[in-house]
TrEMBL record:
Coiled coil: none annotated. The keyword Membrane applies. Pfam families: SBP_bac_1. The keyword Lipoprotein applies. This is ABC transporter substrate-binding protein. InterPro entries: Bact_solute-bd_prot1 (IPR050490), SBP (IPR006059), TAT_signal (IPR006311). Keywords: Cell membrane, Lipoprotein, Membrane, Palmitate, Signal.
Length: 447
């Protein structure tokens, strides 16, 4: 991932009013804390309490383990709704009133949006770079901007293909190694009234992950602003493939993965597989009567050899917010939580986090065979290698949420005749307008 400067984030002429519009809430109204003095650690013997806002369940049980061994630095967690379900609005509102917690859960794709409102602490000022070797390099790059670090990777979702062997065996198939093979198997499955998978027209983040795997890089930052290209060959390969799959009725578009319709179809053998993030294992375990009927295979790769073996779907950070009075201690807790065996195991067992960002330890329970997944040790067989097969050039941009909403709205028009290929071009122009309306400099990459 290419690092870029705050000037590139902002583009030409972005002032405080524009920052407020970008956040979609009251203007935070604070200057960057990253140009001021470094806040000193607490004095020996001084007791403090850090607050952490997160949508992870039972996170306090994780914090309690830290609290037992750190009597002077206690952590209190507060549950908030998921980011775009109200959590981010709550955080932005707190920043606007000079308040809020020390730490907050922020998705990797949302880091640039928080940076634009001066909402995050550059953790290199407090020694974060000294911990970089503890993290997956691709994930570390997703939180590294402007030569700084603006969040500590908390979990992610390397992708693989969860499948039902008995459904594939109906047509004599095994897990396809390539997307073209995937299409061939999907065609045979339709003869048995089953689908290979579903395609969520209302959630463009899934398609973004497929395009990322193919080698796409939709945005790039340069000294004079942003460069956009959402119709590059890699993206078009993915869009043309799924256009064809939808047109041939090879994928189910009536519902998305893990919806009530999906669970019903999966339980009846009407769906052979789902290509998703590693965290999907916990959801698939909710399929009625599914124990022993599922396995996991590597994600199919794009034909032509220009793409990557996997992709990431989802991923969060523990970010230190600008109003924290104790950023060094907040950083120390975030690193402990995401790299120590105690912290990782506690987050898996209590909070059900996605994939650990620390390559040295995936979690105790994830090193064992799974009875539900047919006794397969799929985390070490599939997802551990998948973390090494990622697109390092993909980077998120300042209006990611609005961009994905625009793309999702366009994909929904597939039902009325607008192809995914056409939508990419239309959405690109609309997103460029969003950038310009917010005072961000952007241009189309030359062909």
């Amino acid at each position: 991932m290419t690092q870029f400067t705050r000037r590139q984030l902002l583009g030409a002429g972005l002032g405080t009013a524009a920052l407020g519009m970008l956040a979609g809430c009251a203007t935070p109204g604070t200057a960057s804390v990253n140009g001021g003095p470094v806040i000193a650690p607490v004095a020996s013997g001084e007791k403090i309490t850090l607050k952490y806002w997160s949508w992870l369940k039972d996170l306090q049980k994780v914090a309690d383990i830290w609290n037992e061994s750190h009597p002077n630095v206690q952590v209190e967690t507060v549950w908030i709704p998921g980011g775009n379900s109200g959590g981010y609005q709550k955080i932005f509102s707190a920043l606007a009133t000079q308040g809020g917690p020390d730490l907050a859960q922020v998705e990797m794709r949302s880091i640039p949006e928080f940076m634009l409102v001066n909402g995050l602490v550059d953790l290199t000022r407090y020694g974060a770079q000294e911990t970089a070797h503890l993290y997956d390099p691709t994930l570390w790059s997703q939180v590294s901007y402007t030569g700084g670090v603006y969040g500590i990777p908390q979990d992610s979702g390397p992708m693989g293909m969860f499948y039902q062997p008995a459904v594939l065996e109906k047509v004599g198939a095994t897990p396809p190694a390539t997307w073209n093979e995937w299409g061939e198997v999907a065609g045979e499955l339709r003869k048995t009234d089953a689908y290979m998978d579903c395609f969520p027209l209302g959630d463009a983040s899934v398609f973004a992950a497929f395009a990322t795997q193919a080698g796409a890089q939709w945005f790039r930052a340069e000294e004079d602003g942003w460069v956009i290209n959402m119709t590059d060959p890699a993206t078009m390969q993915a869009a043309e493939f799924f256009d064809s799959a939808i047109d041939k009725d090879l994928v189910q578009t009536a519902y998305g993965a893990f919806s009530p319709g999906w669970f019903a179809a999966a339980a009846k053998g009407g769906l052979a597989s789902v290509t998703s993030g590693s965290w999907a294992d916990a959801l698939i375990a909710g399929v009625s009567g599914g124990e022993g009927k599922w396995r996991v295979a590597p994600m199919p790769v794009w034909d032509g050899g220009s793409g990557f073996g996997s992709s990431y779907l989802g991923g969060s950070t523990a970010a230190v917010l600008a109003n924290s009075k104790h950023p060094k201690e907040a950083l120390d807790f975030a690193v402990w939580m995401t790299t120590s065996k105690e912290g990782i195991d506690a987050m898996i067992n209590n909070s059900g986090i996605g994939w650990s960002p620390a390559p040295g330890f995936i979690g105790t329970t994830r090193q064992k065979p799974s009875p539900f997944f047919s006794g397969q040790n799929y985390n070490q067989e599939v997802f551990e290698p998948a973390t090494l097969q990622q697109n390092p050039d993909w980077s998120w941009w300042p209006v990611t949420t609005q961009s994905l909403n625009i793309l999702s709205d366009g994909f929904r028009k597939k039902a009325t005749g607008t192809s995914l290929v056409e939508t990419m071009s239309i959405a690109e122009k609309q997103i460029m307008t969003v950038f310009k309306n917010k005072g961000l400099s952007i241009r189309r990459e030359a062909s």
